[in-house]
Amino acid sequence: MKTILVTGGLGYIGSHTVVELIQSNYKVIIIDDLSNTNISVLDSIHKITGMLPTFYPYDLKNEALVSKVFNQHCFDGVIHFAAYKSVGKSQKEPLHYYKNNLYGLINLLQEMERNTLTNFIFSSSCTVYGQADKMPIDENTPLKKPESTYGKTKQMGEEIIEDFVKAYTKKATILRYFNPIGSHPSGLIGELPNGAPDNLIPYVAQVASGIRDYLSIFGKNYPTPDGTAIRDYIYVKDLAEAHVSSLNNLLNNTQKQGLDIYNLGTGKGHSVLEIVKTFEKVNLLKIPYKIEGKRPGDITIAYANANKAKNELNWQTKTTIEEALISVWNWQKTLKEKEKL
Ligand code: WQD
Does the Cβ of 301 fall within 6 Å of ligand 1? Predict the structure, then answer.
């Protein structure tokens, strides 16, 4: 049984990926500093899979602790999720973001090199494209300087990995997520926003459950059919499955060295208003909203050309936006029940 280290494995996308890895017969070791999640997620992973992964509540910036984990296990691969991801907070605390997201990555890669390990998968984001000139966005689309420090840490992280692969003859895969949404079909894991959500979908869910009075729709005069911005919303379990496909591809690929980059999206764009109306329709409820000004740094439109992942990883999304938005409301109702306990 191959052993995989998953950093940030108790986070939103990390926990869904850990479940898929275990159910694909991998042994999983988790490092997570719990800065943006809850230890109860470990128990939920246990309930879903019947397996309790070994867990270390460590900060990747702590070299001694990370070394200790690498001394105790022999990893066949590493999937790196652990990073701060709030676009808004990154603008207020850039140095905090650079230190955490970049030094954490560098320390992890140094440990891999110290242990002559290869097979590295990096959680990146379509934010590295900025506002791309043409749609759909493929992996050859020129990158633009991201507006946010969060986005810059993703772009710089990709460059660090490119040098790591070349200098130390490693194999790595960069996965550029579009907009992850939804929760696991079991209803036991999902997004756990810290305070008021930055992102559209968890905010809509909180309006639906009465935690927020209304949704602010940031901008209604974009050059789009209904004037609101368009994104590619990808169901989190489909996204998690792409990580297993990427890992299988790395482990089966006997080539000694190289870097691959894949866009992970549905290939379809939906506007903010379309999302609101679809959420209302499939969940039989109303979402009050107010039109407000554009959010600084937001782009008009982004949706993926995901053919490269389909052709090379034998992976594509299977879940409709309707199904994903039903899972969003199911999870929000679960959170509400938990609060009553
Ligand atoms: C989507 C659309 C908003 C909230 C960012 C990161 C990306 C990834 C996902 C981490 C935009 C509008 C939002 C609200 C709104 N991050 N909106 N009212 O900005 O596309 O992507 O989050 O995994 O890397 O860049 O996602 O959900 O914040 O916004 O109108 O209350 O919804 O203006 O048009 P975004 P988002």
Answer: no
Number of residues that make up the chain: 341
Instruction: Give residue 341's pLDDT.
Output: 65
Examine residue 228 and state whether it is found in any structural domain, yes or no. Answer: no
Preceding omega of 57 cis (within 30 degrees of 0): no
Q: Give the range of the structural domain holding residue 42, as residue numbers without chain letter.
A: 3-181+233-265
For residue 86 and ligand 1, the question of a CB distance below 6 A is answered with: no
Residue 304 domain-assigned (yes or no) = no
Looking at the domain assignment, is residue 271 inside a domain?
no
User: Which pTM was predicted?
Assistant: 0.97
**Residue tagged 């499955």 (tokens):** 241
**pLDDT tens-digit series, residues 201-237:** 999 999 999 999 999 999 999 999 999 999 999 999 9
Catalytic residue among 12, 84, 129, 150: 150
206 alpha carbon – ligand 1 mean position (Å):
15
Provide DSSP, 59-106. -TT-HHHHHHHHHH---SEEEE--S---HHHHHH-HHHHIIIIIIHHH
Report residue 263: phi and psi, to 5°.
-80, 135
| pLDDT of residue 147 exceeding 90 | no
Cβ–ligand 1 distance for 127 under 6 Å, the answer yes
Q: Hey, whose CA ends up nearest to atom 22 of ligand 1?
A: 199
- What number is the average pLDDT over the span 136-145? 96
Residue 223 lies in a domain: no
Query: Mean pLDDT across the stretch 247-254?
Result: 93
Is pLDDT above 90 for 150?
yes
Q: What whole-number distance in Å separates Cα of residue 85 and Cα of residue 149? A: 10
Which ipTM did the prediction report? 0.98
- Comparing CA positions, the residue from 154, 235, 238 lying closest to residue 191 is 235
303 a catalytic residue:
no
State the Cα–Cα distance between residues 319 and 102, nearest whole angstrom.
Answer: 33
In DSSP terms, 79 is beta-bridged to: 6, 121
